[in-house]
Design goal:
The chain has 226 residues and is mostly helical. Helix content is 63%, strand content 0%. Helix 1 runs antiparallel to helix 2, helix 3 packs antiparallel against helix 4 and helix 4 runs antiparallel to helix 5.
Length: 226
């Protein structure tokens, strides 16, 4: 979405969808995303917590709840949320890097660097502020991430090249996020997240592609991060 008015309209659309399907957690999740983009953090927290009442182990909701908590100064609670995601899947890069940033900026430098290095060794593309912004990292967390990324130890890691594994073969990232081989059935929210954030689908952001309305069927309920 290109501006705040579109997020406000999105919230209205998701609320209409929820009138039809009150327990549709994807709409609740997307409403939380829109609230967070508008910096209505308390409303975002409420929306995300309602998602977790329906689907308690939803990784993306738990991560985003941590992102919002960080922006309002509840750093320890944010770390707890991200740690919970790591316990679900210890190969998830985002919560590990977020914890590394949080610890680093709390003054726990060695611990923060160690966990950030583990995360970035899994996927160096996360060592880019534009990537983090697309993933809905807020202003405070982005500013703190910038400090960690300027650390010589992290800069040295990110400067290392691996010609056999370029960090951004777009469809490979898409497949990796979906974890095709290890999942008998791809979770709908996981698929939507991967599709919405992958640059392969950037053309869908064009206004010419915005041709559907709620009345056309089941609404697409994942807000594209920008």
């Amino acid at each position: 979405m290109e501006n705040l008015e579109q997020y406000e309209q999105a919230i209205a659309d998701y609320e209409k969808a929820l009138e039809v399907q009150p327990g549709y957690y994807e709409s609740l999740f997307s409403k939380g995303v829109a609230f967070s983009q508008l910096k209505f953090y308390q409303q975002a927290i409420v929306a995300y917590e309602k998602v977790l009442e329906i689907k308690s182990d939803d990784k993306f909701t738990i991560i985003n709840l941590g992102l919002v908590k960080y922006e309002i100064g509840k750093v320890d609670e944010a770390i707890e949320h991200w740690q919970a995601v790591i316990e679900i899947n210890n190969q998830f890069v985002e919560p590990q890097l977020a914890i590394g940033v949080a610890l680093y900026n709390k003054g726990e430098i060695p611990e923060g660097l160690a966990i950030a290095e583990v995360a970035l060794k899994l996927d160096k593309s996360w060592g880019n502020l534009q990537r983090l912004k697309k993933e809905l990292w807020g202003e405070k967390l982005l500013a703190d991430a910038a400090k960690l990324l300027e650390n010589p130890q992290i800069k040295a890691l990110l400067s290392q090249t691996d010609n056999s594994q370029e960090t951004a073969v777009e469809f490979e990232q898409f497949e990796d996020e979906l974890d095709w081989e290890n999942s008998e059935e791809i979770d709908e929210q996981e698929w939507l997240h991967a599709a919405a954030t992958n640059p392969v689908f950037d053309f869908l952001k064009d206004s010419e592609e915005d041709i559907y309305q709620l009345t056309d069927g089941k609404p697409f309920t994942y807000s594209i991060k920008n």
